[in-house]
Amino acid sequence: MTENTMRPFVKWAGGKKQLLDRLREKAPRAFGTYYEPFLGGGAVFLDVRPDRAVVNDVNEQLINVYRQLKADAEAVIAAVSAYDAIPCSRELYLSVREAYNQKIAASELDAVCAAMLIWLNKHCFNGLYRVNSKGLFNVPYNEKKQGASIDACNLRAIGGYLRKADIQILCGDFEDACEKVGAGDFVYLDSPYLPLNETSYFTDYAKDGFSMEDHRRLADLFRRLDQKGALVMLSNHDVPPVYDLYEGFAIEAVDVKRSINCKAGKRTGREVIITNFET
Hints:
CATH class of the largest domain: Alpha Beta
Helix content: 25-40%
Strand order of the largest sheet: 3-2-1-4-5-7-6
CATH architecture of the largest domain: 3-Layer(aba) Sandwich
Strand content: 5-15%
Number of domains: 2
């Protein structure tokens, strides 16, 4: 595993595996600083591998994993491997989940907390990250009893890259993360998507969720970044409100598969890639 073949270490809602080839084709060839204020699993970030970047997510525990990998990937690898050494069971899963939630409640952001998130992601139902109103992880067990939760070489490569490159890792609101964007910088926006229909709902990966008002804020940010001369690319569902929010910009619809949906019949759909530049 090298830094040229890094890939996400967790399955995350909104992961970009299906869209990655097209996003790569549409990304600008030259830019200043790379910004990704909704980092998630980091598929695009790890594919672009910028020399200088500002990355952000509102999920404090997820951001802790990136920070711990940057500080000491071996500590995270050792902690996950210790869990993997024991065959998983429902009792073990619930025990680790409870210990993880105790760390969340106590704001203990360390290598063990990072390892717990990775391990739970591999053993929870459908790879979801869902929290309750208190911000505690509440996804049930997926009945997976054994198998490696990590590719140690991949985690080492990510840790090495984060240390060698100029990467600022933030945790907070997406607008704050883009405060210093300037002309020629590249910003990729991959927020929680708009619902497919009126009966759809958001699967919250942060306790505060992402509202329609947040989508309006995001569209306003897109236009402000455009006015600054930044190169901006955004992905979302192919639904009518997107076309209203981003009227005047280039919108391309792309067919995708949705592996995280628990209903097989709903695992296909269309997403859009919106840009303010031509490639």
